[in-house]
Design brief:
mainly alpha; disordered C terminus; 225 residues; 60% helix
Length: 225
Amino acid sequence: MSKLITPEKMQEVLDWTYDKAVQGIPGMGSAIDLAEDYMIGSGTTEDKINSLIRWQNTKAGSTGFVAGLGGAITLPVALPANIASTIYIQIRMVAAIAHMAGHDVKHDKVKTLIYLCLLGNSMNEVAKDFGITFGTKFATSYIQKNVNRKVLTKINKAVGFRLVTKFGSKGLINLGKVVPVLGGVIGGGLDAFTTNIVGNQARNTFLQFEPTKYKVGSNSFKDVS
């Protein structure tokens, strides 16, 4: 049976999943725990992030792992277990990458960047609607200094809307069609492929920003550089 979801419901899914990924769920550590595990040992931060991405790809492609994880996740919106699990794996992975790159995953700006990374290769299309072009010094300055909570909320909503309307019309989709962005029902191979795209986007995003430019440990947007 097909499931329909609105952009507002998608936002609920993202926010709920983000909180659980940061806090952790029974039987699975938080995004910070995951990041700290991969920070042990030699190698550059980028090498360690790449190792994390490879393992998360394996998880996303494993039907047994996803089925088990789906039983532990009860989203505020009813979704098939494999879709719910893949969303969780990807948000937790991106949050872990952000932490490994030195960012505070409890900061509102970091949360918004994590959501944008879920769009994979479509991330820049949404960001540029708000005057953000990633890969430039301007983007770094804009994210770190000039984005207030009102704009962040608009960006978050735009991400949810994009996840829905990319595969449907009038704000409603059949969740089976969200697979190209978040993985889903077609198969573990596609889940792993899309998770890899999201992970690479997160690595490229968070390694380009200097984390000390905003006040780490709070949601203050005061520049402290």
